[in-house]
Automatic annotation (TrEMBL):
It comes from the Bacteria. Residues 38-154 form the Pyridoxamine 5'-phosphate oxidase N-terminal domain. InterPro entries: Pyridox_Oxase_FMN-dep, Pyridox_Oxase_N, Split_barrel_FMN-bd. This is Pyridoxamine 5'-phosphate oxidase. NCBIfam families: PPOX_FMN_DR2398. The lineage of its organism: Bacteria, Pseudomonadati, Pseudomonadota, Alphaproteobacteria, Hyphomicrobiales.
Amino acid sequence: MTSLRHRFRNVVTSEEELRTVVGQPPERSVAKVIQIIDEYARRFIAHAPFVFVASAGADGMVDVSPKGDPVGFVKVLDDRTLAIPDRLGNRRLDTLRNVLINPNIGLIFVIPGVTYTLRVSGRAIIVRDLELRETLAVNQKLPDHVLVVDVLHVLSHCPKCMVRSGLWQPDAWPDTSGLPSFAEMLVAHGKLAQTVEEMQAIIDSGNRERLY
């Protein structure tokens, strides 16, 4: 961090400096934070097929993991509790390992075509209760683990970032012709012995056979 600061001349180090430039938030931005999953938050979560989950390990390193499933896959157990199924993946278990050490997590729920998002912060535990896992089954396949979140803060996030990015506007989407494939990145970053074609076949097989 020290070496990074040496690269720049004007580094902000206090909230006072931030406020001098930006000013204070309007009252509505402060008042919109609630401590429960109310009717409006429930309706948003019920329509969301995608959520970003942020967690941090013992060393403070922050990880953000995307989770996606059929619409409404995150279950509202009550107005203070959410349940997020952990589906088959790469077995890194970054989020779950972090939660074992540091229970604090943050969530951003995303709905395609909707320009605002829902942010939730809280503390999580990992559970394997059969009854709960059964309610989260897809194609009769149960998740091995469920991330259960004790909700502390809930707030809606304004549309500006979505509007600026043109995320839901196909005409604004970038040209991806020069984008490396997932297989190319895996082979390059992992220095793997497989060819890109072989890795692509592995990925395609996993997408067909290991979704649940």
